[in-house]
Design brief:
Rossmann fold, 2 domains, six-stranded mixed β-sheet, four-stranded antiparallel β-sheet, 9 helices, globular, ion transport, ABC_transporter-like_ATP-bd
Length: 282
């Protein structure tokens, strides 16, 4: 059963369309990576799926119902999102920030219950940030802060977590730290993880499913072996890439590439220019 999918989704800002007639499913309990060049609609798609921005037409379906009609608190119990640039946590301790993840479960005066406190500590433990609980968020390194934001998303107790470029501004070690944490959450707790990534090798290494976008449409969606190919990368990024195999994971990886000169490729060479893999076909 597919819990989350879009049908003929159209999203734009004013008169400018960003996502165009897009139909795609998100595999449940797997890691999905969305890739594509800057401005192709990756982040817009993520925001539309999580109802941060409205869609102009089409549908986003979750558990059989349209998210546009879902109660906000009920929706927040199903999906959590970590934006590309989280809001400032200035003046907050780690524990205070993570407690915000309990908002969907609070009522009345919003006081934290024993259950809330237990979930907060659990989220801190899982993300390896329990030792920072009483420290200011501002005093942490970039990698530590990112893990704290993920802890807040975990405290929301959702089955689905969406992340917009979670490794941005992090060095190589901290990037792996965050991605391995997400991989562990998926493996141990069956969380559905959906993330926008710029690094193609990270996407292929950590994702079970990849969605390659260009100009607001899907060029190819499937396993990393189906998406991480010379032809798909040529269509999406206009590059001539050499694809090899990661000796540790046997996943495909981009070994090297160069930009194609104007005229070296054409529209006709694109792979699956119209993607029709809507949920009903799976």
């Amino acid at each position: 059963m597919v819990r989350l999918y879009t049908e003929h989704l159209k999203v734009g800002y004013g008169e400018r369309p960003i996502v165009k007639d897009l139909s795609v499913h998100i595999p449940d309990k797997q890691i999905t990576a969305i890739i594509g060049s800057n401005g192709c609609g990756k982040s817009t798609l993520l925001k539309a799926i999580t109802r941060i921005i409205p869609h102009q037409s089409g549908s986003v379906i979750l558990d059989g119902g349209q998210i546009a009609k879902e109660n906000t608190k009920k929706l927040a119990k199903k999906m959590a999102i970590l934006p590309q640039t989280p809001e400032s946590a200035s003046g907050l301790t780690v524990g205070e920030l993570v407690s915000y993840g309990r908002f969907p479960y609070q009522s009345g005066f919003g006081r934290l219950t024993k259950k809330d406190l237990e979930v907060i500590d659990w989220a801190l433990e899982v993300t390896g940030t329990i030792d920072f609980k009483h420290r200011p968020v501002d005093a942490l390194s970039g990698g530590q802060r990112q893990r704290v934001w993920i802890a807040m998303a975990l405290a929301q107790e959702t089955d689905m977590i969406f992340l917009d470029e979670p490794t941005t501004y992090l060095d190589m070690a901290h990037q792996l730290e965050v991605l391995e944490l997400l991989q562990k959450l998926n493996a141990d707790q069956q969380r559905t993880i959906v993330m926008v990534l710029h690094d193609l090798n990270h996407a292929a290494r950590f994702a079970d499913y990849m969605i390659a976008m260009k100009d607001g449409s899907i060029v190819k969606a499937g396993t990393c072996h189906e998406v991480m190919t010379h032809d798909v990368l040529k269509a999406v990024f206009h590059i001539d890439a050499e694809i090899g195999r990661d000796p540790r994971t046997n996943k495909p990886m981009c070994i090297t590439y160069h930009l194609l000169k104007k005229g070296e490729s054409s529209h006709e060479e694109m792979v699956d220019p119209v993607y029709t893999g809507v949920a009903a076909s799976y």
